[in-house]
């Protein structure tokens, strides 16, 4: 819905597996020139490198999304859903924008807000996202947190 409403203002590239429920929609919107669907790709880096922003308006239960972590690591601003698994990767208004779940109008508004930003504002937003990921999601930080949790759980079971 958002891509249809913003057609001509932005180019929408979709990468990844497409569930059966959405295949007809994807095919129709690709034929209409609303989106470009790439299917599963082996190397997402080239797509991220050529993107100004990564958008993940999910409503599915997510862990912390690798898509969002990878986008921020590439210094790309993020537009995603304000829900667990997504909001952890974004500082709303600083490193990206959060949208209401299943609210395509809010998604359109946030995309328009992003499109109205200057190149420098977008660049700074992406760099702040990169800093957030380095600070909060570095592999060693995550591994240490897992090890602490495992030690805590094992300690609880022993005591």
How would you describe this structure to a colleague?
The protein has 159 residues and is mainly alpha-helical. Helices cover 50% and strands 11% of the residues. It is built from seven helices and five strands. It has helices at 2-5, 20-31, 45-49, 66-73, 104-116, 119-136, 139-158, and strands at residues 13-15, 36-39, 54-56, 78-81, 96-99. The radius of gyration is 18 Å and the shape is globular.
What secondary-structure arrangement, pairings included, does this model have?
Elements: H1 2-5, E1 13-15, H2 20-31, E2 36-39, H3 45-49, E3 54-56, H4 66-73, E4 78-81, E5 96-99, H5 104-116, H6 119-136, H7 139-158
Parallel strand pairs: 1-2, 3-4, 4-5
Brief digest:
With 159 residues, the chain is mainly alpha-helical. The protein has helices spanning 2-5, 20-31, 45-49, 66-73, 104-116, 119-136, 139-158, and strands at 13-15, 36-39, 54-56, 78-81, 96-99.
Low-confidence stretches: none
The total beta strand count reads 5
**So what's the overall shape?**
globular
Decide which structural class fits the backbone.
mainly alpha
Specify the biggest β-sheet: 3 strands, parallel
Strand content: 5-15%
Approximate helicity band: 40-55%
Mean pLDDT: 93
The N- and C-terminal alpha carbons lie at a distance of 55 Å
Order of strands in the sheet with the most strands?
3-4-5
Total helices: the number is 7
Rg (C-alpha, Å): 18 Å
Topology order in helix (H) and strand (E) letters:
HEHEHEHEEHHH
Notable characteristics:
7 helices; three-stranded parallel sheet; mainly alpha; globular; 159 residues; single chain
């Amino acid at each position: 819905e958002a891509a249809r409403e913003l057609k001509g203002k932005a180019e929408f590239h979709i990468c990844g597996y497409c569930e059966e429920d959405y295949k007809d929609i994807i095919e129709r919107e690709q034929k209409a020139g609303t989106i470009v669907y790439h299917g599963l790709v082996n190397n997402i880096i080239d797509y991220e490198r050529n993107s100004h922003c990564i958008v993940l308006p999910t409503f599915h239960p997510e862990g912390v999304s690798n898509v969002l972590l990878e986008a921020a690591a590439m210094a790309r601003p993020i537009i995603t859903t304000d829900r667990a698994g997504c909001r952890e990767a974004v500082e709303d208004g600083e490193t990206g924008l959060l949208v209401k779940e299943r609210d395509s109008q809010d998604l359109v508004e946030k995309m328009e807000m992003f499109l109205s930003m200057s190149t420098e504002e977008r660049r700074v937003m992406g760099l702040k996202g990169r800093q957030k990921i380095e600070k909060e999601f570095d592999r060693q930080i995550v591994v240490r947190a897992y090890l602490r949790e495992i030690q805590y759980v094992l300690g609880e079971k022993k005591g």
